[in-house]
Amino acid sequence: MRLVTAAGQVGAPLGNIPSVNPSGQGGLFGLCVDPNFSVNRMVYWSFSERGTAGNVLAIAKGSLSANETALENVTVIYRATPAWSGTNQYGSRVIFDRTGNLLVSSGDRSDPGIRGQAQALNSAIGKILRITTDGQPAPGNPFVGQAGARAELYSIGHRNQHGLAIHPVSGDLWEGELGPRGGDEINRVQPGANYGWPIITYGIDYSGQPIAGAIQQQNGMEQPVYYWDPVVSPSGMTFYKGNRIPEWENNLFVAALSGMHIVRLVIENNRVTGEERLLASEAQRFRDIIQGTDNALYAITDQGRLYRIDR
Fold first, then answer.
1. Residue 55: which residues within 8 A CB-CB, separation 6 or more?
2. Which H or E run includes 39?
3. 232-311: which CATH number, 1.25.40, 2.40.160, 2.170.130, 2.40.10?
4. Engineering a disulfide at 203: which of 39, 115, 178, 180 sits with its beta carbon 3.0 to 4.6 angstroms away?
5. Mean per-residue pLDDT for 176-188?
6. 15: closest CA among 59, 68, 66?
7. In what order do the strands lie in the sheet with 297-301?
8. Confidence category of residue 242, pLDDT binned at 50, 70, 90
9. CATH H-level superfamily of 14-229
10. Is the model's pTM score more than 0.85?
11. Which residue ranges make up each domain of the chain?
């Protein structure tokens, strides 16, 4: 983990980061700063952690030191159990909601032996979670008090969610999710809702075989707002807010990995009414995108480039 200045100068690795398991699709995933960062200097992030029982998605927090060389008082506040021996599809992003709690995307871990737990209320696999900054279930979660259900669950039936963003007007949670072969999704996430994986999907397995019953709809399961086939591999995403570029107001920007571009989605009444593909000529796997305090967009790529996008 490093700091990058506004001029693009990359700092040395920060100290005191907990050990990360980089195998497979493991690594450092999502990061967000506390809304009161200017006072408390707190940072929260998700990463893959190796344990005695297997690998887990973990959420940690720490405060940036005054000299900006390390994180201090680092604590792992949550682990998305059960652990699993595989090293794929952890998710994951972590963001703040408007109540000061954390929303975390926890992937399905890919393998047929565990991905079905995306439908299980006693598992954190394949879910969106809502926790406090101390890692406890957030008050008001939809499954609190339901027998056999984990209190930290916010929504279920997800696959591999690399994007979370709060709509700047409605406050709704939106999510980007990688499908298998086909069926990348954009979802408007409602508390307590079931988004279907792996029972319904617009994709097929990597082997070319159908998944489950090869169906795309089922009662009690939500449809995506938008999906891609062929895929673009949606990763990090953010809504644009501010008036520097008025025609982008409240548009959703999605970093695309295999698509190698940035997607701009125009959304009206919770429906996608337009799509534009930006920076395709750069031939980069775009990993994440966020709006900075200067209201410009910043996008980072797997090849190590950091882009500033502004008028």
1. 21, 23, 26, 48, 49, 83, 84, 85, 86, 87
2. helix 37-40
3. 2.40.10
4. 180
5. 97
6. 68
7. 286-291, 297-301, 306-309
8. confident
9. TolB, C-terminal domain (2.120.10.30)
10. yes
11. 14-229, 232-311
